[in-house]
Amino acid sequence: MLSRQENAAQPFAQRVDSIIKRVEACLDEHLAGSDQLSHAMAYSVFNGGKRLRPLLVHASGELLDIDPDLLLAPACAVELIHCYSLVHDDLPAMDDDALRRGRPTTHLQFDEATAILAGDALQAMAFEILASEPALTARPNSALRMCATLARACGAQGMAGGQALDLDMEGQRPDKTALEHMFALKTGALIRASILLPACLRPELPAAAHADLTKFADCLGLGFQICDDLLDIEGETAVIGKTAGSDQALDKATWPALFGCDPARSRIAELAAEASICLDRVGGNTEALSWLTDRLLNRDR
Fold it and tell me: How far apart are CA 118 and CA 243, in angstroms?
């Protein structure tokens, strides 16, 4: 494994694959099992995901000079929460999607009951990992802060609340403030958690730096969701890995559908610029987070 000094000397783009392999090896260890629920959980996690949130954990950790060994548990935990949310979002009662990353969604590959239970179990496993990882249990205050940070991100003030607002807005025309608030909960909260989890290991981080890091995360999360909305309109099913046009079919409130594709692109550029300013104010080794910001806000899938 590379030391922190070697990490700093090697561009993040060249280390992405090794970080992902390490995260997936850890996930594979936790997801071993031979019963149907275990198979459904593994199917939901090992489905071609890009592991963007674990990469954000590691990139933020590099900014804050955190030992990479301390980042593996939060990276796995945040990915498990993300995967659980996708399983539940795809259910007929929610978005009723048939494809996820080019494969049948979990409730179609197995059945609805198994999909619900798989999502529940993945969520529980995320907190089990944070609470039992030896590298973190030696730092109980940091582990507790991580659990609280992740819990807020996936609860009523995070993803679950955002999904509820998203469902309420179907067929509606909310203004930009209301729409972006929903995005900040549904998508942005977990991206924010990915970036702030490493900060739980730096309680001495100045309040101003923490605020700038939070603002950076919020800009990135909002830009990411607007980009996702654009892909639903302009992308191809074979490329984006899910059914293109599904948001339009459900008459969902999306940024480009309500305010136009060109303005959406302008909004993404505006958020990218604001994120860059915030990151510069935090200081430190920003190379990894800057590279990921460009990747997340200029993607085609």
Answer: 22
